[in-house]
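Predict the structure of 6-phospho-beta-glucosidase.
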Amino acid sequence: MKRFPDKFLWGGAVAANQVEGAYLDDGKGLSTSDVQPEGIFGPVINRSGDESYTKDVAIDFYHRYPQDISLFAEMGFTCLRISIAWARIFPQGDEQQPNEAGLAYYDRLFDELERHNIQPVVTLSHYEMPWGLVQNYGGWGNRKVIEFFQRYARTLFERYSRRVKIWLTFNEINMSLHAPLTGVGLPQDSSLAQIYQAIHHQLVASALVVKACHELVPEGKIGNMLLGGLMYPLSCQPDDVFETLQQNRRWLFFGDVQCRGAYPGYMQRYFRENNIKLEISEQDRAALRQTVDFISFSYYMTGCSTADQASHEAQRGNIMSMIPNPHLKSSEWGWQIDPVGLRTLLNMLWDRYQKPLFIVENGLGAKDKVEADGSINDDYRISYINDHLVQAREAIDDGVELMGYTSWGPIDLVSASKAELAKRYGFIYVDRDDQGNGTLARSRKKSFYWYQDIIKSHGEKLKD
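Done. Here is the predicted structure for 6-phospho-beta-glucosidase.
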C-alpha cells in the first residue's frame, strides 16, 4: 500500500495555552498553565498582573487565527486539532453560567475552519484547568470537580454540536503521574494515593462526558488521549522483560479503564501492594462502563526499562525518565527518534483494544535557522515526519484502523515542558523568541511545501 485511505484525516495539532496568548482577555480566568509560566515542571507563580511571561502572548493565535487557518488550508489540512481553554468558558471553574465572550471566540474560530473545509478535532482539557478549582477545591482531588467538568463539557457539546463531531477528553491523561499539577491540579509532592484518587475522579468524569457527548452530539465521536510511552526491555533477561511489561502498564492502565470500562487486575494488585485505598462508589463503577469510541495518542519517542534499579537511576534521561536506547539517535532535546516504534505501538494498541486509533501528536522540536533570504531548510523535520508516516502506512497495511494524523505543532508554538519558543515544531515559522522579541510574522518553511505534497498525494510521495 502506497496511498493512505481517502477518508484519512490530515492536519496538525495545537493547544490553547501554547498558542492563543490573550491570557486574561474577554473575561478569561487564570488557569494552571498561567501560574506555571516556566512549563509543566516549573514552579507555581503568584500572578500579580504586572509581570509578563512567554505564554501570556504565545504566538497570539487568539487574534491571528484567520491568517494561520488560511495557511493550514494552503497545506491542504482536512482537520485541525485544537483545545478549548476551560477558563475562557468558566473563568473560576464553578460558575453556574458560562462566559459568553469565551464561547463566542470559539464560534468565530469554528466559522473560520468551516470556511476552509477544515474539520475541528477538539480536546476538552489540554494541560490546564481553571486555577480557581485548584485554589478553592483542591483540583481533581475533590469529587466536586467531576460535576464542574460535566457542566463545562455539556456546555460545549450543546453549543458546538453542529460543528464539532470529533472530541477528546483529557490530553495525555497518563502525564498526571509525572506532572500532577498540570494533570490533576495537585502539588508536585502529592502522595501516590492522592494522585491516583484524583486520577480516578478524572476517569469517572471522562466516562460521564463520553455519555453526554453521545446524548448531545448524536453524530459525534469522542475518544481518550494517551501519551504513548512505549518501553523496550534493556536486555532479554526475563526480569527486564517483565519490568518492561509493568512499566508499559503504568500508562496503558488509563487506556484499559477508558476502553474496557473497569480497573484491570494488575492495577488492583499495584494498589494493594502500595497501600493505596481509593474511594470508588458503585455509581463510579457503573459510570466507568461507558467506554470511548476511539483511542488518540501522542508519539514522540520510546525508551528502555530494566529491573536493575541502580542502572535505571544512573542512565535515565529525557522528560519521561526513560533509559536511552543505544541503537537510536536523539533529537537536540534528548528525545530518541524511533519511527518503527510507532508501527509497533499502533499494532499493540489495535491488538489490545480493537478500537479505531488516531495519531494526534507527532513531530520534531528543533532549533531552526533562518537563512539570509528568509528561507528555513528544515530537512531534519521532513525526514522525521516522513519516516513516521511511512511506518503509520505500514501499520494500516498490517490491519490497523487509523483515523488520521495531526502533527505537533504545525506552526511554531510555546513548548509545554519548559515554555520555550526556541524548540520549534512548525511547518510555519513564527518570528518571536524566548525574550519576547520579534514581529510575530509567519513564514513558510521548506517542510510546509513538503507536507502540502504529502497531503495532496495521500501519502504517495513519501520516501520509503
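The mean pLDDT is 95.
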